[in-house]
Predict the 3D structure of the following.
Amino acid sequence: MTLKRKTKPRKFAEPQPQENAYLVAVESRSGPDVLMPVEYSLRELARLVRTAGGTVSGRTTQRRLHPHPALYIGRGKIEEIKALREELKYSMIVFDDQLSPSQQLNLEEAFGVKVLDRSALILDIFAQRARTREATLQVELAQHEYLKPRLRGQWQHLSRTVGGPGAGNGAIGTRGPGETQLETDRRLIDRRISKLKRDIKGVRNHRERQRDRRLREGLPIVALVGYTNTGKSSLLKALVGSDVFVADAPFATLDPLTRRLGGNRDNAVLLTDTVGFMQKLPTELVSAFQTTLEELSNASLLVHVLDADSPVLESQEIVVRETLNNLGLGDMPLLTVVNKMDMLFSDNTTRKNTDMDQLMSRVDIEEIGLRIDPLDEYLFVSATERWGIAKLRARILYEFFGSNEPSQFY
């Protein structure tokens, strides 16, 4: 007789309920923060919330000369948002700017729910998307550096962990000056930050060896840069024809991905896809991803990818150019590629047309928010429809090998 082995029923993790977010932004009436209108900035914030796995129940803005130093928004606006909680059932409030540690604490006490800012939300998305050891280390470092100044007072209601005044009944070995839980947490975070920096330094050394090997091979490096979700990965896939992860979501690419473009060693370049930029990026994240962004400094040419369908194309272009300037890359040779041109046409007959010259004659450049700089070079493509891809490939190779007549690219 054969005995049947009893097996335990498999347990499957229950899907976690989506968190419901209420979005808040301050529309300042002074200063240079008008790069992106507040309604589009909130629309971008809503997409970040959905990318992180949440839903959006509502949003509001407040016009102020400056954000409130203690609460970011006024007390009247706080009461207005609190009155909506029963109706909207929000479980967290997300602010469109980075909050100071004291602002976040005050707001959590005022609302009685979790409070996040744009920086924390972006860090959470990066943590979800990190796949390689390098990206994981960099994201964790950024999270710890963001968290450290926010270790605030949540332990103050507890007694001191050891020793200290009033600890006369403590066990042997516990009497003395003692250490608060808050101090312990800060010390542990400092240790972790130090270890992460050492590990990242090792990763940086490995990446430098990879770059040295590429330089010895003598292949020029071309880096794709741009605002997040402008189609850089789709463009890389269209240009080189290899398997590249593509997603219609912010920050789909965290790790640089390099592929060969061209034929033999004497007529090829290395094309690198890099992490996308965004307005109001946390400074901790930019600092932590310095090893990744160093890929740009070794490039011979930057290809700046714009989204033709974006209603704030000009603002996104300015954000990218300012970021490049801050990284010391403002003087690097730049080729601007306007992607997603297919999104400007709705009829199928036009969408199937691959004659970019004919299509461009029907487009008003100023209507899509692009101010042509006579000193820059612009090419118009659609990565998904493969419009203009052959011309773009030929133009990149011409930059280094002069393999075609330059007049054909204009």
